[in-house]
UniProtKB/TrEMBL annotation, chain A:
Protein name: phosphoenolpyruvate--glycerone phosphotransferase
One term under GO cellular component: cytosol
A Pfam family: Dak2
EC number: 2.7.1.121
InterPro entries linked to this entry: DhaK_L_YcgS, DhaL_dom, DhaL_dom_sf, Dihydroxyacetone_Kinase
Pathway(s) this gene product operates in, as recorded in its UniProt entry: Polyol metabolism; glycerol degradation
Job description of the protein: ADP-binding subunit of the dihydroxyacetone kinase, which is responsible for the phosphoenolpyruvate (PEP)-dependent phosphorylation of dihydroxyacetone. DhaL-ADP is converted to DhaL-ATP via a phosphoryl group transfer from DhaM and transmits it to dihydroxyacetone binds to DhaK.
Catalytic activity: dihydroxyacetone + phosphoenolpyruvate = dihydroxyacetone phosphate + pyruvate
Matching PROSITE patterns: DHAL
An individual GO BP term: glycerol catabolic process
Domain of life the protein comes from: Bacteria
Gene that this polypeptide is encoded by: dhaL
Ranges for domain DhaL: 5-205
TrEMBL record, chain B:
Subunit: Homodimer. The dihydroxyacetone kinase complex is composed of a homodimer of DhaM, a homodimer of DhaK and the subunit DhaL.
InterPro entries referenced in this protein's UniProt entry, alphabetically: DhaM, DhaM_N, PTS_EIIA_man-typ, PTS_EIIA_man-typ_sf
Protein name in the entry: phosphoenolpyruvate--glycerone phosphotransferase
Enzyme superclass (EC): transferase
Encoding gene (name): dhaM
Amino acid sequence: MATKAEVLDFIRIYADKMAEHRQELTDLDQAIGDGDHGINMSRGFKAVMEKLPAVENKSIDEILKTVGMTLVSTVGGAAGPLYGTAFMKAGMSTKGKEELSNEDVILAFDEAVGGIQFRGKAVRGEKTILDSMIPAIDAIKASIKEGKTMAVALVEAEKAAWNGVEYTKTIIATKGRASYLGERSIGHQDPGATSTAYAFQAANEVAQKAGK
Amino acid sequence: MVGIVVVSHSQKIAEGTVELAKQMAADVKISAAGGLEDGSIGTDVSRILAGIEAVQTGDGVVILVDLGSAVMSSEMAIEMLSDGSNVKIVDAPIVEGTIFGAVQASIGASLEEVINVLAGTKSYKKF
């Protein structure tokens, strides 16, 4: 499960990570895209941090929707509509909630990834966010099904996300600006898959701190 | 009158394109939704939303886009409208499409007619 405080903590830690890894994400994007992913994500989450105090006492869905709305107006690149839709969809699935059960968390992740697929019209294996996000969510589902705690599930999820990031080095980009490079995109790690892996890293850190 | 929104990652491209189109059709309903609020490169769903609302008279709106997230951000803006059924993104060159669209709209063409003309601008020969 996840309390509202943990959801807020997740957003704050993820925002810190986007600031901390700004250069790394930008460098990855410079190799195969337009070189703005780190700049865009850190700008978007900086704006989120400014908006957060005004909604932190509201229900979880209001918090998530505010994050999404802020991202679509401040990220600037494709990551804005993609991450924005993910947070907004996750928000819609948690309507009125003050805390989330494991089932709620899984539903929110499912809605988020569904939103990204709808928005980006992409599937797994195209060198995108989905290549780290889908395996991470699958890992959460498998762990919870085996009766493990969310903390254990998120350790597995982060591992799966980074494995997904590694996998993006081996495939050709067919979506976004990296697709202009065709085969030359092989060997490069996808910046979107990487920023998503940091989301699971943030979630994992929150869960370990809570110890459940 | 059909409205036009120009969505570019660059505020200057969006505003410059609008400026060109207005030279041809001064009274056309057209808005520029370029860049982010602080002027940096990118697309912003709320700026696009405001751009649509500024030119919607009920006769419909066409959106011209440059590339990448301009399409996704415009799609999101349309979904956020209470009724986005007569707001359409067109796959046309942003500068030529905006000028042709503005001329069509200014002579009272319907949304369908404007869209048809814009569809043809992809094969427009410059020389």
